[in-house]
Design brief:
Layout (H helix, E strand, L loop, with lengths): L1 E2 L7 E5 L4 H13 E8 L5 H12 L4 E3 L3 E7 L11 E2 L4 H11 L5 E5 L10 H9 L3 E3 L9 E4 L8 E3 L5 H11 L4 E6 L7 H8 L5 E2 L5 E6 L3 E2 L2 E3 L4 H13 L4 E8 L6 H8 L3 E8 L4 E7 L7 E2 L11 H9 L3 E5 L12 H11 L3 E5 L2 E6 L7 E3 L4 H11 L6 E4 L11 H8 L8
Parallel strand pairs: 2-16, 3-14, 3-15, 6-7, 10-11, 19-20, 23-24
Antiparallel strand pairs: 1-24, 3-5, 4-5, 7-9, 8-9, 11-13, 12-13, 16-18, 17-18, 20-22, 21-22
Bound molecules: shikimate-3-phosphate.
Keywords: Amino-acid biosynthesis, Aromatic amino acid biosynthesis, Cytoplasm, Transferase
Protein name: 3-phosphoshikimate 1-carboxyvinyltransferase
InterPro entries: Enolpyruvate_Tfrase_dom (IPR001986), Enolpyruvate_Tfrase_sf (IPR036968), EPSP_synthase (IPR006264), EPSP_synthase_CS (IPR023193), RNA3'P_cycl/enolpyr_Trfase_a/b (IPR013792)
Length: 433
């Protein structure tokens, strides 16, 4: 795909697509609840559609009328075995959370995905689930997908210190703990996104998080009741336009209905720290959403480390681009988890942005970026990673000359209308969009 810079900036209002983490979980909780769940503003991106299809295969009736997704819950005891391996594409969230759900089911399931998923570490989930009494194995006894899950109806509760800060691992253990008899305690290294915990409460279940935000207690077995879920916009998708608005001259963007769960808003804290011209309005505390206005900004470098990292882990590639336009040295550390995302995002971010002239150096656990540097067009590659693809597309809008983005289709994992939305904000889209 050929991309050229914009001289007029980006302007207008954008409704941010639905939250990926919440969309996945709405299908899962809907399936495991008793009664009907309706989901409005579900993200129809490839990852969440993989979750939807997987639960259909496990015998859960799910319909989509184009507006509302309706899930007829089957309860924890109603899932059915599927006799061939289930393809869940590129989605780490789908495979890891389903491992926790299937650990408590009295049948065998195999889950597999694409080449990227086949390289992602699964021991972090398999080890605690095996301790609880399920039997999970990877391809040829490795920790990599395809993963075969021999579930057990007699899971034991577990006390577990998470070795990595990961909401996917935490959530997988929670899903298994909900099916075990007794109380499980999960202790996090750093607090991570809490959508699973929030949804347990929304669906009528119980879970406690200690005041440190890192110790979670959950008792099994539990039952859930179907709910109406309205998914807010994804701050991780908004991030691309927050940064685009800040770094592209003559820009002003209004982003509506953006999720502001505090476990996800690290990018807001960092952008304010970097003196971005960013404001939040219309805070809707009940739906945890807000409207955000971003204008072209004069930016200062910063250091990003420690407890904030899980609150912005998916935003680090686009924050790295932001830092290329800030004055001074930005240091990102304690982010080694970036190496095991859809790509090694430390390497991918540094290598692709260097092609465009950025002064960016990969480290063992992050990136060091010296700014500001003018960027120039180049042939760059999403490497099949949606967030790397979108970051590079935003970079192309300030780069001198033409950029060629390889594998742009990766964006459909979380943001199918990404390129159309850019066109619209550049004033080139259809009038009625
Ligand atoms: C997610 C958790 C994070 C995040 C991913 C979605 C979730 O992964 O990167 O995009 O929905 O729980 P980790 O748990 O591996 O950090």
């Amino acid at each position: 795909m050929k991309l050229t810079p914009t001289s007029q900036g980006l302007q207008g209002t954008l409704q941010i697509p639905a939250d990926k983490s919440i969309s996945h979980r709405s299908i899962m909780f809907g399936a495991l609840a008793e009664g009907t769940t309706t989901i409005k503003n579900f993200l129809r991106g490839e990852d969440c559609l993989a979750t939807l299809q997987a639960f259909k295969k496990l015998g859960v009736p799910i319909t989509d009328d184009g507006e509302t997704i309706t899930v007829t819950g089957v309860g924890f005891n109603g899932l059915q075995a599927y006799d061939t391996p289930i393809d869940i594409g590129n989605s780490g969230t789908t495979i890891r959370l389903m491992m926790g759900i299937l650990a408590g089911q009295p049948f065998i399931t195999t889950l597999f995905g694409d080449d990227s998923l086949a390289k992602r570490p699964m021991n972090r989930v398999m080890l605690p689930l095996n301790q609880m009494g399920a039997k999970l194995t990877g391809e040829k006894n490795s920790e990599f997908p395809p993963i075969t899950i021999v579930g057990s109806k007699n899971l034991k509760p577990l006390t577990y210190h998470l070795p990595v800060a990961s909401a996917q691992v935490k959530s997988a253990i929670i899903f298994a703990a909900l099916q075990a008899s007794g109380t499980s305690t999960i202790i996090e290294k750093e607090a991570t996104r809490n959508h699973t915990e929030e949804m347990i409460k929304q669906f009528g279940g119980q879970i406690e998080t200690a005041s440190d935000g890192k110790t979670i207690t959950v008792k099994g077995p539990q039952t859930f009741t179907g709910q109406e879920v309205i998914v807010p916009g994804d701050i991780s998708s908004a991030a691309f336009f927050l940064v685009a608005g800040a770094i592209i001259p003559n820009s002003q963007l209004l982003l509506t209905n953006v999720g502001i769960n505090p476990s996800r808003t690290g990018i807001i804290d960092v952008m304010k720290q970097m003196t971005a011209d960013l404001t939040l309005d219309h805070l809707d505390q009940q739906n945890q959403a807000a409207t955000m206005t971003i204008k072209t900004s004069q930016l200062k470098a910063t250091t990003i480390s420690g407890e904030i990292i899980p609150r912005l882990i998916d935003e680090l590639p686009i924050i790295a681009l932001l830092a290329t336009q800030a004055t001074g040295k930005t240091i990102i550390k304690d982010a080694e988890e970036l190496k095991v995302k859809e790509t090694n995002r430390i390497d991918a971010t540094a290598a692709e942005l260097r092609k465009m002239g950025a002064d960016i150096t990969p480290t063992d656990d992050g990136l060091v970026i010296q700014g500001p540097t003018p960027l120039h067009g180049a042939v760059v590659d999403s490497r099949g990673d949606h967030r790397i693809g979108m970051m590079l597309a935003v970079a192309s809008l300030i780069a001198k000359g033409e950029t060629q983005l390889l594998r742009p289709e990766a964006v459909a994992v979380s943001y199918p209308s990404f390129f159309e939305d850019i066109q619209t904000l550049m004033g080139k889209g259809s009038e009625d969009k």
